[in-house]
Design brief:
Blueprint: H1 23-40, H2 56-59, E1 63-68, H3 83-98, E2 102-105, H4 114-123, H5 127-144, H6 160-174, E3 176-179, E4 184-187, H7 188-197, H8 213-221, E5 226-236, E6 241-243, E7 262-271, H9 277-282, H10 291-301, E8 303-313, E9 316-322, E10 333-336, H11 343-346, H12 357-360, H13 366-378, H14 382-386, E11 395-402, E12 409-414, E13 426-429, H15 435-443, H16 491-505, E14 508-514, E15 519-520, E16 533-535, E17 541-543, H17 581-584, E18 585-589, E19 594-599, H18 613-618, H19 629-636, E20 649-652, H20 660-673, E21 686-688, E22 692-698, E23 710-713, E24 716-719, E25 722-729, H21 741-748, H22 750-759, E26 767-768, H23 775-786, H24 808-826, H25 830-847, H26 853-863, H27 868-877, H28 894-897, E27 902-908, E28 911-918, H29 924-933, H30 935-941, E29 946-952, E30 956-961
Parallel strand pairs: 1-2, 1-20, 10-12, 20-21, 22-26, 27-30
Antiparallel strand pairs: 3-4, 5-6, 5-7, 7-15, 8-9, 8-14, 10-13, 11-12, 16-17, 16-19, 18-19, 22-25, 23-24, 24-25, 27-28, 29-30
Length: 962
């Protein structure tokens, strides 16, 4: 039987006890208690004010806001791997309730996205219809697991009441700019006031009053945090849409559909996330996140210090950013990205005299060469362009720029290894000290000059070199100009001197650069949030007033964007919304009388709704403001240990490190700057759960076969009599190895599934699913049930005694379990918590006789966060009328927790010679005396003197003979 083959519940003998805990009993208990919890609002978390205000005693408690990453309602439903994080947060939330916290724990749906739209294209079914059906199915599956969510707070991003505020936030960003002096966002109206009053110079030098509306819009567009621009984008003809960098795979194809992606210039909406690059890096230090995720964000943002250098050309200049301005004397040519806007401007009509044929690529004119090379580069992804290739490609533009430090004329090339998306899209090439520049220079017969003294004995004659020499601690050589010399300086000092010279001479300045690019925020799709933007007759973008929100999606006849030949990079998008002419062309009064406008026909990306959903959980029915200020401060405001505020615990996969998490942080900071929230970070503590894996079985063709139908015979795996291969991997419908939670719940009950998923191993580690092992947790619950309920009569079977009458061994077992389980649940070590519960339960089983009531009640409370249905049932059978959900978690008595004795190892010459049982509180002096008096130690010393005794009470004594 395969690991994914559901194992049947052990057969119940015909003469089995009538009140035994079985799958049928579990199903009845679970369904009944879920109904009770819903009816009584057991998991409702009261707000301090507003329509969800409630029990003042609960509000007065310390708060805990616990979140799962937004699920997408897939048509395939859940498999057992999906609920891992949901069960974990539920266990943790239940524990926090029992330890005196007001806990907010709920779940909504991130329901916009391409899968529903693609299904609509294939079937004609409206995306809303299929999405809502999927949500209904998923809600039922999650409910069956007994998750303690505050259902009053749930929503979906496709609800107009929700995306009204997504659109509102977009307008806050659109109507803001980043003040670099104040290091925060400010309303765009304040920038207009500065321009109008002459407090800030208008770019271009004209007065603000002299600018037309179009000119003013253009100026403000250079400052707005949300702006439209013509810029290189990732165009995917096969999907008919543009993609963010993060949605393109390493081999230059779309994550969804695996279509080729091209660089193309299109007018798209962008978010100026780069304005926050410094803060996005710096504020990571105060977050309780895995270091690996912090590192990924730091690397993605990519802060580097260096200098901006201007290379004069034809009365203007080409600007480069370099982290090694100390090598400026070694720059012998320049390279621009093929898409650089200055390429056409500085490309002459004819080749200059003496242009090498290898530079020109055999083309008759520079324009012809540039055009041909641009077409070639457009077919490659950024990753392909940056990959180390044996043959370097590029072409001379026909132009020369001036190296500002020595006046040399350096040729200007375009090459695909330079990207417009990083730095300035231009580099100064120092081939003697950069391997890529070295390979390019060799291929194009370009000069190179050594300016960093080699320390490997090769000398400074670059003609003899096989590769570049790179070093950050060698001396600078051959770097003296008319008014500056770097010769003899180390790299650090040389950087400082040349940067000072650049600033003094007006040729550049010290600066910081970032790898992070602005966030492409347009999608050519139907199933997304419409932009609350219209364009007037001059093409100026105008924001809709709040009174016109939400701007709802219109009906369209065809849901698909126009797709094209996947290999045709010259195509352009056509969106579904653009086909609804009545919706696109409208007459509106935006405060200056009725006028004709054209709506934006792109939609927002699927990330938009998840950038702020934590705030909607706080105040989900507020139709007057984004979130009530008092409610937001209560749940997310800064406090001790959380200087930026945020959610107390956020659980989800590590795959969202630079997409959702970075975007949500950006939105949170803008809202904080504008005074809408008190929390500058959305998520204070982040925990990445591992993955539940399953074996994938493939036939000789490499095609996955149904895992449930695979059998094992003498170490071989067979499907329909033929041998198949087995490999551990993801679980999913397409791999034919998915096991649904519905199957396991039917066979064993939801509490068993919860226990098994939590007991499989540490939560942050991936682990293989084995249905055959589930029965172990089912038997734990059967033994628990048997220790409280008489299986023959169904009556309570506990002993009615006081805790003072319980035997010492049982008290010791109980309080050790209480202490250990409490620590494990607080640390989210659910597997070891279950092991300690099992140990206690086994102790009670072996002890025989009725379990003392105080012990039985404590055991039920220990189990309550992990297996809430059976705990609630047993708690009621123990005679209580209140819910176990809000009962206090047991507290250990220290006198029973401490070990009576511990084992001390005694070593002589590093070898163990004795083991002593000693008091845990024994002093170093007492332990040394006891060790030296032990007969085995005396024999091992054999009368030899003692040179040294090392004591580590209470567990180690190491004796070194003389």
């Amino acid at each position: 039987m395969s690991e994914t083959n559901p194992a049947a519940t052990p057969a119940v003998p015909a003469d089995a006890a009538p009140h035994r805990y079985t799958a049928a009993v579990a199903a009845e208990i679970e369904a009944r208690w879920q109904d009770v919890w819903d009816a009584e609002g057991t998991y409702a978390a009261p707000n301090p004010t507003g329509d969800l205000a409630g029990d003042p005693e609960l509000v007065a408690r310390p708060k805990k806001f616990i979140m799962d990453m937004f699920p997408y309602p897939s048509g395939a439903g859940l498999h057992v791997g999906h609920p891992l994080g949901y069960i974990a947060t539920d266990v943790y939330a239940r524990f926090q309730r029992m330890t005196g916290h007001n806990v907010l724990h709920t779940l909504g749906f991130d329901a916009f996205g391409l899968p529903a739209e693609q299904y609509a294209v294939q079937t004609g079914t409206h995306p809303r219809a299929s999405t809502e059906a999927n949500m209904k199915n998923m809600v039922g599956q999650l409910r069956r697991l007994g998750l303690g969510h505050d259902k009053r707070r749930s929503f979906a991003t496709i609800d107009p009441e929700y995306y009204k505020w997504t659109q509102w936030i977009f307008l806050q960003i659109f109507n803001s700019w980043y003040d670099t002096d104040a290091r925060r966002a400010r309303p765009i109206a304040e920038l207009v006031e500065q321009f109008a009053a002459g407090e800030r110079p208008v770019p271009g030098g004209r007065a603000w009053a002299d600018l037309s509306e179009v000119e003013r819009a253009d100026v403000l567009g250079e400052y707005r945090l949300a702006y439209a621009s013509d810029a290189p984008v990732n165009w995917c003809p096969g999907l008919g849409t543009v993609l963010a960098n993060e949605e393109v795979t390493a081999d230059g194809r779309s994550e969804r559909g695996n279509f080729p992606v091209f660089k193309s210039k299109l007018r798209q909406w962008n978010m100026r996330i780069t304005a926050y690059a410094d803060r996005l890096i710096d504020d990571l230090d105060a977050l309780d996140w895995p270091e690996a995720i912090k590192l990924q964000q730091r690397n993605w943002i990519g802060r580097s210090e260096g200098a901006r250098v201007d290379f004069p050309i034809d009365g203007e200049h080409i600007t480069v950013f370099t982290t090694r301005p100390d090598t400026l004397f070694g720059a012998t040519y320049m390279v621009l990205a093929p898409e650089h806007p200055l390429v056409e401007k500085f490309t002459p009509a004819a080749w200059p005299e003496g242009a090498h044929q290898v530079w020109t690529g055999g083309h008759a004119t520079p324009a012809e060469a540039v055009a041909a090379y641009r077409a070639q580069a457009a077919s490659k992804s950024d990753v392909e362009r940056q990959a180390e290739a044996k043959d370097k490609t590029g072409v001379f533009t026909g132009a020369y720029a001036t190296n500002p430090v020595n006046g040399e004329q350096v040729p200007v090339f375009i090459a695909d290894y330079v990207l417009m998306g990083y730095g300035t899209g231009a580099i100064m090439a120092v081939p003697a000290h950069d391997s890529r520049d070295f390979a390019f220079a060799r291929a194009f017969e370009l000069p190179m000059r050594c300016v960093v003294q080699p320390t490997d004995g090769r000398g400074t004659d670059t003609d003899t070199w096989d590769d570049a020499f790179g070093s950050h601690d060698a001396a600078i050589v051959q770097s003296t100009g008319a008014d500056v010399s770097l010769d003899g300086l180390g790299v650090t000092d040389a950087k400082a001197r040349i940067t000072e010279w650049l600033e003094r001479s007006g040729a550049g300045e010290g600066t910081v650069n970032f790898r992070l690019r602005d966030w492409l925020f347009s999608r050519q799709r139907y199933w997304g949030e419409p932009f609350p933007i219209v364009y007037d007759e001059d093409g100026v973008a105008r924001a809709l007033p709040e009174s016109m929100l939400p701007l709802e999606l219109p009906e369209v006849e065809d849901y698909s964007p126009r797709t094209f030949d996947p290999d045709d990079a010259d195509t352009r998008p056509e969106t579904p919304l653009s086909r609804n002419d009545e919706w696109v062309h409208v007459t509106l009064d935006l405060g200056d009388g009725p006028k004709k406008y054209r709506r934006e026909t792109n939609t927002m990306p699927n990330w938009a709704g998840s950038c702020w959903y934590e705030l909607r959980y706080l105040d989900p029915h507020n139709d007057r403001q984004l979130v009530d200020a008092e409610i937001e401060r209560y749940w997310m405001g800064p406090r001790e240990g959380m200087p930026h505020g945020g959610v107390d615990l956020y659980v989800g996969g590590a795959e969202h490190a630079v997409l959702h998490l970075l975007y949500a942080r950006f939105w949170s900071k803008v809202l904080f700057d504008l005074g809408h929230v008190s929390s500058a970070e959305p998520f204070h503590k982040l925990y990445n759960q591992g993955m539940i894996q399953a074996y994938v079985y493939r036939d000789s063709r490499g095609i996955a076969v149904p895992a449930a139908e695979v059998t094992e015979d003498d170490g071989a795996y067979l499907y329909q009599g033929e041998r198949v291969s087995r490999l551990l991997g993801k679980m999913g419908k397409s791999l034919k190895n998915a096991v649904t939670p519905d199957e396991i719940c039917a066979e064993y009950g939801a509490d068993t599934l919860r226990l098994y998923e939590m007991a499989m191993g540490p939560l942050d580690v991936s682990r293989p699913w084995d249905t055959r092992a589930v029965v172990g947790q089912f038997r734990l619950l059967q033994r628990l049930w048997r220790n409280v309920v008489d299986e023959e009569t169904g009556e309570l079977s506990v002993a009615e005694v006081a805790e003072s009458d319980v035997d010492a061994d049982t008290l010791r077992a109980l309080h050790k379990a209480v202490d250990g389980v409490r620590q494990d649940l607080e640390g989210m070590r659910f597997n070891t918590a279950i092991a300690k519960v099992t140990e206690l339960n086994n102790h009670l089983t072996k002890a025989g006789g009725p379990v003392p009531r105080p012990v039985a009640e404590a055991l039920v409370l220990l189990v309550a966060p992990l297996a809430p249905h059976v705990a609630e049932e047993l708690w009621r059978r123990l005679g209580h009328t209140d819910s176990v959900v809000h009962r206090d978690f047991p507290v250990a008595d220290p006198q029973y927790v401490a070990d009576e004795t511990v084992t001390c190892v005694v070593q002589v010459k590093g070898k163990v010679k004795a083991r002593l049982e000693v008091d845990p509180a024994i002093s170093d002096e007492e332990l040394e005396k006891a060790a030296l008096a032990d007969d085995k130690v005396v024999a091992a010393l054999g009368g030899a003197g003692i040179r040294k005794v090392i004591v580590r009470a209470p567990k180690l004594v190491n004796i070194v003979p003389a």
